[in-house]
């Protein structure tokens, strides 16, 4: 294979510069996106020959791409890549796929040995590899909690150093396919920053960098210097950073599994463990409310003062900007729940807080896979803070304003603006009055569709048609949610038809779904999640098996939910009629 086969002259020139000066077996091109900017990462597999040092080769490759900022180089040996693949590192496997090979020496010495293409096995290996990485982190986290409770802060710092070091190594394997062999946390921050700026800036403020330096010092000092210690306050700061790092790991692992499944869909190979993007986003919403919250990493009690809305706003905006750049963010609803439990017998005291913000997020360009990004944001925000958002392109939002769409005027004028300039919005026109007759007719169409679908399953549950019944019931619930949103808002987010997402949006209007389907009870919520996955399971999983007993329960609840929604919407229309008189 030679460089003349490439249409990109910049890539052709880079490969030519590298291969003229180094003996290279293979080069793979792995494109990825950082903050909306495409980066082309070249993986140069250097032949292990006399006179070819890895350090000099890296310097030469970096020189070859120095004039092309959109290109970067990573240099390693083929046997090192093969070792990673054999260990179950699926990122390395995905990087070294045949469709990413851009150069191969005519007399290649050692090729990358790829496993047989079996996406179900690949998903299993990826999960197993991730579990192994997390188990190492958990072991050190338990050590941190043990020494913290013993007030041995020096050893606690050493254990926490290992939590964060192993976390960064796991992140590097998930994102880059190769971890940095170093015990310096600063080195890991610098190593991963080009691939994941969020982790490169995890310790960003001056005091946080000072804490990072103390953790690095703890690696050697805690073993050899018995006088080394670290304040409990600094340990708390570092432990919180460790928890953020674990949330990133969960998101990175989800991204890796998504990529495996996307390749499967693209190649038309659908297997039992495959899930299409609809099913994945359903899982993402569910997982976003069940973020990895291992207490051993941060064993300190939370501050008794509940953070203010301003604190939440700045936190959410900061995390959002790490993934994409919104032009405007409007908050149109907020929910907060606080639960306290005191048991005088066991002397157990628990306190939990959960805050959900409903946002309208505007971007200059249409956002790809918005629910996946929402899941990633919620992973980083933690288990006490969550967003549910409507996503609009700025141009589309302005067009709706010009057309006088009442809901968009409400978002622009009556909600809390978190960020964005007034001048970019076109809000000169007066919103058009609501056409009650038309909207009521549209609501009836949704409601009648839901009624018809529910009638289809009335006598079929418990028979051999349970799987079909689950699909029909999920569509009935979808119609009710869309109908309610359109009746109240005059707008329906039908570009993202994801049932769990639609249910969450209706909760900004009414708690009916949460109350009727007992969504705060994990076992009850799981039944709704399974129902929401029914359509994709029915399409792609030949072994899909619905729970007939759960369907009986859900159908009864769905009927009650339908009746309550109908009453709610009718009261809403009656109110609008009174206002118009």
TrEMBL record:
<feature type="region of interest" description="Disordered">
    <location>
        <begin position="271"/>
        <end position="312"/>
    </location>
</feature>
<feature type="domain" description="HEPN">
    <location>
        <begin position="134"/>
        <end position="252"/>
    </location>
</feature>
<dbReference type="InterPro" id="IPR007842">
    <property type="entry name" value="HEPN_dom"/>
</dbReference>
<protein>
    <submittedName>
        <fullName>HEPN domain-containing protein</fullName>
    </submittedName>
</protein>
